[in-house]
Amino acid sequence: MRIASIIFLLVFLSIKSQAQTTSQMVDEAHKELDKAEERLNTVYKRILELYKKDTLFISKMRKAERLWIQFRDAEIEMKYPHMGTLDYGQEGRICLVEYKLELTEARERKLRQWLVRNIDETNHCNGSVGRYKDE
């Protein structure tokens, strides 16, 4: 009986330790996502500042960002369609946050193009990228 109690205690402590570790992983994933979203917002605000004289661009930029958020959320729902109804467990939540992080970092990289000054007026394929007006 004593051996069974010891085994039970060891299994219980192992499960509890693993749960705390997984919980910490979820927290860490959320912290990384928060940092990425903050970086994305910084880039977005900087673009709005650089292009503030181009009101048509600003309008299109805001529209694109609203649509990107809808796309990102739909993409996550497509990858994890049963998140609200099935229990993917803590690991599933970590995966969801990591996927959102991946999409957010990709968006930041994409938007950073508009921060680089494009002085080649002959390359029209760049469109609005880097064509902000100096103050």
From TrEMBL:
| Signal peptide positions on this chain | 1-19
Coiled-coil intervals in this record? 19-53
Is Repeat found in the keyword set? no
Q: Where are the transmembrane segments?
A: none
Protein origin, superkingdom: Bacteria
InterPro entries, alphabetized? LprI-like_N (IPR009739)
Boundaries of every Lysozyme inhibitor LprI-like N-terminal domain copy: 17-111
Record keywords: Coiled coil, Signal
Answer yes or no on keyword Signal: yes
The protein here is known as: DUF1311 domain-containing protein
Name the species this protein comes from: Pseudopedobacter saltans
Phylogenetic classification of the source organism: Bacteria, Pseudomonadati, Bacteroidota, Sphingobacteriia, Sphingobacteriales
